[in-house]
Design brief:
Number of strands: 26
Helix content: 25-40%
Strand content: 15-25%
């Protein structure tokens, strides 16, 4: 070997190459749990609180998720947005304390426990209520623990050691106290009116508990014979109505017409085979809708007899289609502002127990009585002739056939349309007249205070202000009561003699204190005298056993979280939830706040859209798109999910698919390798 070869330089050693122990692959599903464990070992959140103590607070109040199952990708969207905002506010130097919480009462949990009973052949009503409620409590506690771990696995920082939850005794006590404020102020009243009712769940529902899905309804064209009319030539003819709810016919008490609608009276001269219409009968319908009515009912030819305006029917009286078989009462004709010629016949049948507009027109405006026709399980009541025992959802075709047999119809059909369903059982719901407890939106200027509070609130995006304001302006009285077992009871006593609720603050305070010490199960297990005290005879009072709408529970969180904890403040700087909470938590929080403070519990409202499939349609479990959150994290890691959410315009719906998330994962690798190269150059 030559000397030159021996002394030759190794030029590889002179090249400046990146050098780092930072790995090329993230291995996030395995690495992230180690990072979270390190945060816990460091007690990172406590150190942050100590570091930020005394600084300006930023409080994002957590809208409570429901404790009844594993988290899904929609939970990730909500919680990650909250976490990003809290972290950014903390990095700006603020004390951004985040207290997570849970909604624990309500029908979904009760339904699960009932389901377990049904599998064992047991009847829920035979189980002592304290035992049943304890099973619900245990179920909620189990899922709270699981969801807490899953949220933390997302990298969400918060006070997970001391969260809030609605079934905590202190929470239940303050929820009861909040109901007491509406009671003593005079806004809480018991009334009988039609409310959304679930025959499957056997309880009233709030508007926010209802979703709309396609439903196939049996439709009927029913005929009411005119027995009195200012236009004498029309006496004996038939006013025809169209409805998608044949089961409401036993509850009919009036007909509505439009003052300025053009109606036509025609004699039927030719019908198609199988038509329920009769030749030589005279029917009255909207002239604009005539062609469609003839087509639907098989009317081939007719002779026009009269044309009238709706107002000429004023003070007219008709008879029920089932007159002669137990429905022998007068059916007055009333002018209705909401009657249109968009669909149907131009007339509307009025059942005041089965719809808010019917109730307002017939009962409130004209004093017509509201009959009880439907049992809590959705069957028509025993006292009803002909239809007794038939089910309002399952037996509409049979109801229509019975009416046809009695010559009460000129047509039967079907319609697929958007129909209200319970968002929990996904079963159709109905309007049912029943005695319930309501909160008046007008009492003591409650609605005006709510609208004024919204005017002072900043909305992100700004369109939310108009939407929520419109909802508040048009909201009917809040149906507070539920005929269930798992929830905070409505802690009210009603004087048997007068029927009036007892408005005594000392009784409210006594109830609240007992709930705080022992929980609200005591309402169902203690003698009424324990709550009434020495000033009232328990035999003179009826104890209300309905529970409160769970939206009242979550709507009261500002009272038992923001106003009770020294590390928070009220009003919160921000409420952040999905846009569906305009009719849910945002509203219930607003109402419970303005009753006392005449102000909102929030300064700012931010709403996000929903996770949808890549084509914009709803996620469904059947196609795998709605798989549990832990499967997404197991495949990609929480950081990929966080990066994906942070890269979206959350103001609208956010599409998700494996393809979309894989693209984000590729972007993550590019970011990681760029950072790795830069770190290596620092060597």
């Amino acid at each position: 070997m030559s000397d030159n070869q021996q002394t030759a330089k190794n030029y590889k050693d002179t090249v400046f190459l990146p050098n780092t122990s930072f790995p090329m692959r993230g291995g996030l599903p395995q690495k992230e749990p180690e990072i979270i464990a390190r945060w816990k070992a460091l007690d990172l959140y406590k150190k942050l609180r100590e570091e930020r103590h005394g600084r300006e607070k930023f409080i994002l109040h957590d809208g409570p998720p429901y404790a009844n199952g594993n988290l899904h990708i929609g939970h990730a969207l909500n919680k990650i947005l909250k976490d990003v905002i809290n972290r950014s506010q903390s990095m700006l130097g603020k004390d951004a304390n985040y207290v997570p919480g849970w909604d624990c009462h309500g029908l979904p949990i009760e339904w699960k426990i009932e389901e377990q009973y049904r599998k064992k052949g047991k009847d829920k009503d035979e189980v002592p209520i304290k035992e049943f409620r304890q099973e619900c409590r245990d179920f909620a506690a189990y899922w709270m623990d699981i969801q807490s771990e899953e949220f933390q696995r997302l990298g969400v920082l918060g006070d997970w050691e001391d969260p809030y939850f609605t079934m905590k005794f202190e929470s239940e006590a303050i929820i009861a106290a909040e109901i007491g404020k509406f009671l003593t102020q005079g806004s809480l009243y018991r009334g009988s009116k039609p409310v959304m009712w679930s025959p499957v769940e056997k309880t009233a529902l709030a508007e926010a508990e209802v979703e709309y899905s396609d439903h196939i309804s049996t439709t009927i064209f029913a005929k009411f014979k005119l027995v009195e009319c200012a236009v004498q030539e029309l006496v004996g003819s038939f006013v025809v109505i169209w409805t998608t709810t044949p089961w409401t016919m036993p509850g009919n008490r009036a007909l509505a017409y439009g003052d300025e609608i053009d109606y036509i009276a025609l004699k039927i001269t030719q019908i198609s085979e199988g038509s329920l219409a009769s030749r030589r009968e005279v029917i009255i319908v909207s002239e604009k809708l005539l062609e469609n009515i003839c087509s639907e009912c098989g009317i081939m030819e007719y002779e026009t007899l009269h044309k009238i305006k709706g107002h000429q029917l004023k003070d007219s009286i008709a008879s029920h289609p089932m007159a002669g078989v137990g429905y022998d009462y007068s059916v007055p004709m009333l002018a209705g502002d909401y009657v249109t010629t968009e669909q149907g016949t131009g007339f509307v049948h009025i059942a005041p127990g089965h719809g808010p507009e019917d109730y307002e027109l017939a009962h409130i405006k004209y004093g017509i009585g509201v009959p009880d026709t439907v049992n809590e399980n959705g069957t028509l009541m025993e006292h009803l002739p002909v239809f007794s025992g038939l089910h309002v959802l399952r037996d509409n075709k049979k109801i229509a056939e019975i009416m046809a047999e009695h010559n009460g119809l000129i047509g039967i059909g079907s319609l697929t349309h958007s129909y209200p369903h319970s968002w929990r059982s996904h079963a159709p719901v109905i309007y049912r007249n029943t005695a319930q407890w309501f909160i008046s939106m007008e009492s003591d200027g409650l609605r005006d205070y709510a609208l004024a509070a919204l005017a002072e609130t900043t909305f992100y995006p700004p369109t939310g202000q108009k939407r929520l304001t419109s909802m508040i302006e048009n909201r009917p009285d809040w149906c507070l009561s539920r005929q269930r077992a798992w929830g905070v009871p409505i802690p009210v006593f009603v004087e048997k003699k007068s029927g009036k609720p007892l408005q005594d603050q000392s009784v409210v305070d006594r109830i609240t204190q007992i709930f705080k010490e022992e929980g609200c199960d005591t309402w169902f297990t203690s003698h009424p005298s324990r709550f009434l005290g020495d000033n009232y005879d328990p035999d003179s009072y009826e104890k209300v056993n309905d529970i409160a709408d769970v939206w009242f529970d979550s709507g009261s969180t500002h009272a038992f979280v923001l106003e009770q904890r020294e590390d928070l403040h009220s009003p919160a700087d921000l409420y952040l939830e999905g846009s569906d909470q305009h009719r849910g938590w945002f509203q219930s929080s607003l109402w419970t706040s303005v009753i006392v403070d005449k102000a909102a519990p929030f300064k700012n409202l931010l709403t996000h859209g929903f996770i949808v499939k890549e084509d914009g349609t709803k996620l469904s479990k059947s196609d795998g798109a709605a798989r549990p959150l832990n499967e997404w994290i197991g495949s990609y890691g929480a950081d990929i999910i966080r990066l994906w959410i942070c890269s979206q315009d959350y103001r609208g719906d956010v599409p998700v698919s494996d393809k979309i998330v894989k693209n984000v994962a590729n972007n993550y690798r590019n970011l990681r390798n760029t950072l790795r190269f830069q770190i290596g150059n620092l060597h």
